[in-house]
């Protein structure tokens, strides 16, 4: 029993004489050398990993959304809502909302109050709001900087020639627009028509296609008719007659 009780007593080795001493002693019982008490290692608290930031994925999703909308507008699938998306009042409203969120962020920062727990902080909302405002502003600038491409209003089939299916196309234009031919020189140094453009008073232009897909196949455009405010103001033969 005595041997079993001695085994349960904590002991420490003297660094000088290498004798065992009880762990509660500060000096060796045999040589008097100072003994450093042993301290049981404390378990380290678990390291809390911070959750991944949510702002970068949200910003990337917002940019991708605008890119998708721009693509759909360029393809003509969002034509009815283009006027609403590119309206200046929409950009102004987005800017006012961004200023409001910025004021909320500055108020929380200078008051030194801990922000309430929520999924998106005022800083995240401020970044998202200003990014949306910048994208809307870029859309507005593109609208005014890049003239709209003329839209084909309708087409009629012409007499079938040696080249197959032929059509006459009616396109919508703006006041002051004109139809112009683009000419070039072939290998035989002969002048030929290589395309048709709509030239605007500002000096910009938009190139028109020379073929049109119809239920009868890919047809050559033999004549363009320019329609402005519901009436024909100009017409021009295409590259193939």
Q: Top keywords for this entry?
A:
single chain; 241 residues; alpha+beta; 3 domains; five-stranded mixed β-sheet; three-stranded antiparallel β-sheet; 34% helix; elongated; disordered N terminus
Q: Rg from C-alpha positions?
A: 40 Å
Specify the number of helices: 5
Which spans of ≥5 residues are poorly predicted at pLDDT below 50? 1-6
- Into which percent range does the helicity of residues fall? 25-40%
Morphology call: elongated
Main pleated-sheet profile: 5 strands, mixed
Separation of the first and last Cα atoms: 120 Å
Order of helices and strands: HEEHHHHEEEEEEEE
Number of domain units = 3
Number of strands: 10
Q: Note the beta-strand portion.
A: 25-35%
State the secondary-structure class: alpha+beta
Q: How would you state the average pLDDT, rounded? A: 77
Give an overview in words:
The protein has five helices and ten strands; from the N terminus they run αββααααββββββββ. The chain has 241 residues and is of the alpha+beta class. The protein has helices at 2-7, 55-74, 79-85, 88-111, 122-145; strands at residues 11-13, 20-22, 151-157, 166-172, 178-185, 191-199, 205-208, 211-214, 217-228, 231-237. The N and C termini lie far apart (120 Å). Strands 3, 4, 8, 9 and 10 form a five-stranded mixed sheet that branches. A three-stranded antiparallel sheet has the order 5-6-7, with no helix packed on it. Strands 1-2 form a two-stranded antiparallel sheet. It has three domains: 7-40, no CATH class; 55-145; 151-237, no CATH class. The protein is elongated and about 120 Å long. It is 34% helix and 27% strand.
């Amino acid at each position: 029993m005595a041997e079993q009780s001695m085994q349960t007593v904590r002991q420490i080795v003297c660094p000088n004489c290498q004798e065992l001493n009880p762990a509660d002693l500060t000096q060796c019982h045999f040589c008097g050398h100072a003994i450093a008490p042993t301290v049981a290692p404390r378990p380290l608290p678990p390291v809390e990993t911070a959750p991944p930031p949510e702002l970068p994925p949200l910003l990337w999703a917002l940019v991708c959304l605008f890119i998708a909308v721009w693509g759909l507008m360029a393809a003509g699938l969002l034509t009815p809502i283009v006027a609403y998306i590119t309206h200046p009042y929409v950009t102004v409203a987005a800017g006012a909302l961004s200023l409001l969120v910025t004021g909320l962020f500055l108020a929380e920062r200078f008051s030194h109050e801990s922000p309430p727990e929520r999924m998106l902080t005022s800083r995240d909302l401020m970044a998202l709001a200003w990014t949306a405002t910048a994208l809307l502003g870029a859309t507005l600038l593109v609208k005014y900087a890049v003239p709209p491409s003329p839209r084909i209003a309708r087409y009629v089939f012409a007499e079938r020639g040696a080249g197959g299916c032929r059509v006459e196309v009616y396109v919508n234009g703006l006041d002051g627009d004109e139809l112009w031919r683009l000419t070039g020189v072939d290998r035989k140094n002969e002048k030929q028509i290589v395309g048709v453009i709509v030239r605007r008073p500002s000096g910009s232009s938009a190139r028109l296609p020379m073929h049109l897909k119809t239920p009868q196949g890919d047809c050559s455009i033999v004549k363009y008719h320019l329609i402005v405010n519901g009436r024909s103001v100009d017409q021009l033969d295409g590259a193939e007659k």
